[in-house]
Write a structure and sequence with these properties.
By secondary structure, the chain is α+β, with helices and mostly antiparallel strands. It has helices spanning about 20-35, 55-60, 65-80; strands spanning about 10, 15-20, 90, 100, 110-115, 120. The strands form three sheets. It has a two-stranded antiparallel ribbon. Strands 3-4 form a two-stranded antiparallel sheet. It has a two-stranded antiparallel ribbon with strand order 5-6. A hairpin with a 5-residue loop joins strand 5 (about 110-115) and strand 6 (about 120).
Length: about 120
């Protein structure tokens, strides 16, 4: 993946595409800063030749700044909660905690939920 600066991108004899760490870092940080949740679906910057996904391991490998990693993690959590099909919801009291309903939803189950922020709400 990493190589000398000033040669980005480079395609080797096996058609593998390489970018330096700095180019990867700038690309990922720009996406986190400007694309919101879209940063989770990043692809190789050389999209015409490569459709490889940018995964969390790459974000860590190229030393993305800590403040960007915090935002990336927040977007990943938001995506997880929002894509849970209603199994996990945001606490309406604080909007920062995802709450999972673990009851079976049967007649005897209480639908009252207590978030760790101490806000109580009905799951319905």
């Amino acid at each position: 993946m990493a190589k000398e600066l000033g040669q980005c991108p480079r395609v080797d004899d096996h058609d593998e595409i390489y970018f330096c760490d700095r180019c990867w870092r700038d690309y990922i940080q720009e996406a986190i800063n400007n694309r919101g949740l879209g940063c989770l679906s990043l692809r190789c910057p050389e999209y015409r030749l490569c459709q490889a996904a940018v995964v969390r391991e790459l974000v860590d490998m190229v030393d993305v700044a800590a403040s960007y990693k915090v935002n990336y993690d927040w977007y990943a959590l938001r995506s997880f909660v929002d894509d849970s099909g209603g199994r996990i919801r945001w606490c309406p009291g604080c909007s920062i905690h995802g709450v999972e309903f673990v009851g079976g939803g049967g007649a005897g189950d209480s639908l009252d939920v207590l978030c760790r922020c101490n806000h109580s709400f009905c799951w319905n």
